[in-house]
Amino acid sequence: MLFALQTGPTITVSHVDVSCATCHNGSATVFITGGGTPPYTIQWNIGSIDNPIIDLDPGTYVVCVTDANGCSVCDSAVVGNADGIISVNTNESVQVIPNPNNGIFTLEISNSLQIENIEIINLVGKKVFSAMFQQAQHGKVPIDFSSGVSGIYFLQIKTTSGIIRKKILINR
Fold first, then answer.
1. Rg for the chain, CA atoms, rounded
2. What is the pLDDT of residues 1-52, one digit of tens each?
3. 3-state class of 69 per DSSP?
4. Considering Cα of 28, then 29, then 33, then 35, what sign does the dihedral take?
5. Looking at the domain assignment, is residue 41 inside a domain?
6. Are 165 and 152 in contact (CB under 8 A)?
7. Is residue 38 one of the residues assigned to a domain?
8. Adjacent-strand bridge partners of 130
9. Contact between 77 and 14 (Cβ < 8 Å)
Protein backbone atom coordinates (compact mmCIF):
# COMPACT_ATOMS: atom_id res chain seq x y z
CA MET A 1 0.00 0.00 0.00
CA LEU A 2 1.32 3.43 -1.00
CA PHE A 3 0.50 6.62 0.85
CA ALA A 4 0.76 10.01 -0.77
CA LEU A 5 2.02 12.76 1.48
CA GLN A 6 -0.29 15.74 1.20
CA THR A 7 1.03 19.22 1.65
CA GLY A 8 -1.07 22.20 2.55
CA PRO A 9 -1.23 25.45 0.68
CA THR A 10 1.59 27.96 0.75
CA ILE A 11 0.63 31.58 1.28
CA THR A 12 2.01 35.08 1.30
CA VAL A 13 0.34 37.95 3.16
CA SER A 14 0.70 41.63 2.30
CA HIS A 15 -0.71 44.77 3.86
CA VAL A 16 -1.22 48.49 3.37
CA ASP A 17 -0.75 50.78 6.39
CA VAL A 18 -3.35 53.39 7.32
CA SER A 19 -2.70 56.78 5.76
CA CYS A 20 -3.11 58.91 8.91
CA ALA A 21 -3.43 58.59 12.70
CA THR A 22 -7.22 58.82 12.62
CA CYS A 23 -7.82 56.93 9.36
CA HIS A 24 -9.37 53.47 9.13
CA ASN A 25 -8.16 52.62 5.64
CA GLY A 26 -5.57 49.87 6.08
CA SER A 27 -5.89 46.56 4.24
CA ALA A 28 -4.47 43.03 4.21
CA THR A 29 -4.43 40.46 1.42
CA VAL A 30 -3.53 36.77 1.38
CA PHE A 31 -2.07 35.20 -1.78
CA ILE A 32 -2.19 31.42 -2.25
CA THR A 33 1.11 30.77 -3.99
CA GLY A 34 0.90 27.01 -4.41
CA GLY A 35 0.38 23.64 -2.78
CA GLY A 36 -2.73 22.14 -1.32
CA THR A 37 -5.88 21.04 -3.10
CA PRO A 38 -8.50 23.58 -4.21
CA PRO A 39 -10.96 24.86 -3.23
CA TYR A 40 -9.47 26.92 -0.44
CA THR A 41 -11.23 28.64 2.45
CA ILE A 42 -9.91 31.83 3.98
CA GLN A 43 -10.56 32.87 7.59
CA TRP A 44 -9.25 36.05 9.24
CA ASN A 45 -9.07 36.46 13.03
CA ILE A 46 -11.63 39.29 12.80
CA GLY A 47 -14.22 36.82 11.48
CA SER A 48 -14.01 37.84 7.84
CA ILE A 49 -13.73 35.40 4.94
CA ASP A 50 -13.12 38.22 2.46
CA ASN A 51 -9.90 38.72 0.58
CA PRO A 52 -8.64 41.37 0.80
CA ILE A 53 -9.91 42.74 4.11
CA ILE A 54 -10.26 46.52 4.00
CA ASP A 55 -11.04 49.56 6.17
CA LEU A 56 -8.68 48.28 8.88
CA ASP A 57 -7.29 50.07 11.91
CA PRO A 58 -3.64 49.56 12.83
CA GLY A 59 -3.15 46.12 14.35
CA THR A 60 -2.20 42.51 13.73
CA TYR A 61 -4.44 40.45 11.46
CA VAL A 62 -4.08 36.66 11.33
CA VAL A 63 -5.33 34.65 8.35
CA CYS A 64 -5.65 30.88 7.98
CA VAL A 65 -6.09 29.17 4.61
CA THR A 66 -7.49 25.63 4.52
CA ASP A 67 -7.56 23.43 1.44
CA ALA A 68 -10.11 20.76 0.40
CA ASN A 69 -8.21 18.08 2.39
CA GLY A 70 -8.32 20.08 5.62
CA CYS A 71 -4.65 21.08 5.48
CA SER A 72 -4.20 24.57 6.95
CA VAL A 73 -1.55 27.23 7.10
CA CYS A 74 -1.69 30.55 8.97
CA ASP A 75 0.23 33.80 8.70
CA SER A 76 -0.26 37.40 9.79
CA ALA A 77 -0.04 40.99 8.60
CA VAL A 78 0.71 43.98 10.80
CA VAL A 79 -1.12 47.08 9.60
CA GLY A 80 0.71 50.10 10.92
CA ASN A 81 0.47 53.86 10.87
CA ALA A 82 1.72 55.98 8.03
CA ASP A 83 5.33 57.09 8.47
CA GLY A 84 5.83 60.30 10.39
CA ILE A 85 2.35 60.44 11.89
CA ILE A 86 3.18 59.74 15.51
CA SER A 87 5.66 61.93 17.31
CA VAL A 88 4.40 61.42 20.86
CA ASN A 89 7.08 60.69 23.48
CA THR A 90 5.39 57.60 24.95
CA ASN A 91 7.85 57.18 27.81
CA GLU A 92 6.87 60.50 29.36
CA SER A 93 3.31 61.01 28.07
CA VAL A 94 1.51 57.89 29.35
CA GLN A 95 2.43 55.50 32.14
CA VAL A 96 0.59 52.26 33.00
CA ILE A 97 0.51 51.89 36.79
CA PRO A 98 1.05 49.13 37.86
CA ASN A 99 2.42 47.00 35.05
CA PRO A 100 2.25 43.97 35.41
CA ASN A 101 -1.21 44.14 36.95
CA ASN A 102 -4.33 42.05 37.61
CA GLY A 103 -6.43 43.78 34.94
CA ILE A 104 -7.14 46.86 37.01
CA PHE A 105 -4.70 49.68 36.37
CA THR A 106 -4.41 53.43 35.96
CA LEU A 107 -3.18 55.40 32.99
CA GLU A 108 -1.20 58.40 34.18
CA ILE A 109 -1.31 60.93 31.38
CA SER A 110 0.69 64.13 31.09
CA ASN A 111 -1.39 67.30 31.17
CA SER A 112 -0.37 68.19 27.63
CA LEU A 113 -1.90 64.99 26.21
CA GLN A 114 -5.60 64.19 25.86
CA ILE A 115 -6.91 60.65 25.36
CA GLU A 116 -9.93 60.08 23.12
CA ASN A 117 -10.18 56.27 23.39
CA ILE A 118 -8.24 53.15 24.30
CA GLU A 119 -8.24 49.59 23.03
CA ILE A 120 -6.68 46.44 24.46
CA ILE A 121 -5.58 43.96 21.78
CA ASN A 122 -4.51 40.36 22.41
CA LEU A 123 -1.50 38.69 20.80
CA VAL A 124 -3.46 37.49 17.76
CA GLY A 125 -4.68 41.01 16.99
CA LYS A 126 -8.22 40.73 18.35
CA LYS A 127 -9.65 43.77 20.14
CA VAL A 128 -10.76 42.47 23.56
CA PHE A 129 -11.56 45.77 25.31
CA SER A 130 -12.32 49.33 24.29
CA ALA A 131 -13.32 52.54 26.03
CA MET A 132 -14.36 55.78 24.37
CA PHE A 133 -14.55 59.07 26.22
CA GLN A 134 -17.19 61.77 25.69
CA GLN A 135 -14.55 64.35 26.56
CA ALA A 136 -10.83 63.92 26.09
CA GLN A 137 -9.21 62.57 29.27
CA HIS A 138 -5.97 63.58 30.95
CA GLY A 139 -4.49 63.12 34.42
CA LYS A 140 -5.28 59.72 35.99
CA VAL A 141 -7.67 57.43 34.10
CA PRO A 142 -8.70 54.16 35.85
CA ILE A 143 -9.08 51.12 33.59
CA ASP A 144 -10.94 47.95 34.62
CA PHE A 145 -9.97 45.02 32.39
CA SER A 146 -10.61 42.47 35.16
CA SER A 147 -12.51 40.30 32.66
CA GLY A 148 -9.23 39.61 30.81
CA VAL A 149 -7.26 36.41 31.28
CA SER A 150 -3.58 36.33 32.22
CA GLY A 151 -1.29 37.17 29.33
CA ILE A 152 0.45 39.84 27.29
CA TYR A 153 -1.68 42.50 25.62
CA PHE A 154 -1.15 45.66 23.62
CA LEU A 155 -2.73 48.85 24.85
CA GLN A 156 -3.52 51.22 21.98
CA ILE A 157 -4.21 54.76 23.14
CA LYS A 158 -5.68 57.25 20.67
CA THR A 159 -4.83 60.81 21.65
CA THR A 160 -5.43 64.17 20.04
CA SER A 161 -1.75 64.00 18.98
CA GLY A 162 -1.62 60.46 17.55
CA ILE A 163 -1.62 56.86 18.69
CA ILE A 164 0.51 55.44 21.52
CA ARG A 165 1.07 51.72 21.97
CA LYS A 166 2.11 50.09 25.25
CA LYS A 167 2.62 46.46 26.19
CA ILE A 168 0.81 45.35 29.35
CA LEU A 169 1.02 42.11 31.31
CA ILE A 170 -2.06 40.76 33.07
CA ASN A 171 -1.02 38.35 35.84
CA ARG A 172 -3.60 36.78 38.14
1. 19
2. 555 566 789 898 888 888 876 788 889 999 998 889 999 999 999 999 999 9
3. coil
4. positive
5. yes
6. no
7. yes
8. 119
9. yes
